[in-house]
Amino acid sequence: LERAGVLRREVLLHHGESIPDDGEWLAIAVLGGTMGAYDDDLHPWLADEKRFLDKQIRGGVPVLGICLGSQVLADVLGGRAFLSDRAPEIGHLLPELTDAGRADPVLCHFDAPVPVWHQDTWDLPPGATLLATSGEYPHAFRLGSTVAIQAHPEAGAEVVGDWALHPGAHPILAAAEIEAAAFVDAVRSGGDRQREMALRLFGAWIDEAIASG
User: Fold this and answer.
1) What are the E-state strand segments in 129-193?
2) Which sign does the torsion angle of CA 49, 153, 188, 95 carry?
3) Helices (DSSP H) in 30-93: which residue ranges?
4) Three-class DSSP category at 22
5) Biggest alpha carbon distance in the chain?
6) At CA 96, angle to CA 194 and CA 113, rounded to 5?
7) What is the SS3 assignment for 9?
8) Which residues of 144-156 are buried (b: 16+ CB within 10 A; e: fewer)?
9) Backbone dihedral region for residue 60 (phi beyond 0: left; psi -120 to 50: alpha; all else: beta)
10) Residue 119's CB: how many other CB atoms inside 10 A?
């Protein structure tokens, strides 16, 4: 965003901040969190977020969702976000692009391993195109100007280290048979390649958003 000279406004809904209603949005990025996209009763702000995103998507505003954000978008667009009965998927992974993913102007840049940490997942929304998969889980889709990515191209080793220290992390790591230190080391070792890829990936999304505006 800084390289593109795009102003940004960060809204922390889980900290009690309200969605601004004082202007138009060029584009919106919906990021991750420890809650489920289906936890509206526990986190009432999720319902407000979904209504806001539905309105913006209907108005043609480009939206990018990452991890929880991808699950929220699946729910908004008529898919289903849910807790899988499969093992958690945690690691330093490179999801496999589908043919549509390789042709997509944004996902075509996804060519380096990144942190993955989830058990929640989604069913593909009606009309959406699957862009990436790990074999065990779907990993990306597009519907119009909405792009959803399950993995974390934006998260480096420091962030992943913080996740591993979260009080609820140990049983999830154990269920995935992942050793936290080795995971963080892998993300750190791949950091330069990930950063270069992420700049291309997010740069392409920003370019698309600017062009559509």
Assistant:
1) 129-133, 138-143, 146-149
2) positive
3) 45-58, 68-76
4) coil
5) 47
6) 20
7) coil
8) ebbbbbbbbbbbb
9) left
10) 18
137, containing H or E segment: none
Could you list the pLDDT tens digit for every one of the 213 residues in the chain? 888 888 899 999 999 999 888 778 999 999 999 899 999 999 999 999 999 999 999 999 999 999 999 999 999 999 999 999 999 999 999 999 999 999 999 999 999 999 999 999 999 999 999 999 998 999 999 999 999 999 999 999 999 999 998 888 999 999 999 999 999 999 999 999 999 999 999 999 999 999 987
Instruction: List all residues 6 or more positions away from 54 whose beta carbon is below 8 Å from its beta carbon.
Output: 76
Which DSSP state fits 131?
A: E
Any bridge partners for residue 81, and if so which? Answer: 122
Closest CA to 136 of 95, 173, 92, 172: 95
Sign of CA dihedral 42, 44, 45, 47: positive
CA 192 – CA 196 distance, rounded (Å): 6
188 Cβ contact partners less than 8 Å away, ≥ 6 residues apart = 156, 157
Q: Please give the sequence-ordered ranges of beta strands (E in DSSP) within the chain, or none if there are none.
A: 28-30, 63-66, 80-83, 89-93, 96-97, 114-118, 120-123, 129-133, 138-143, 146-149
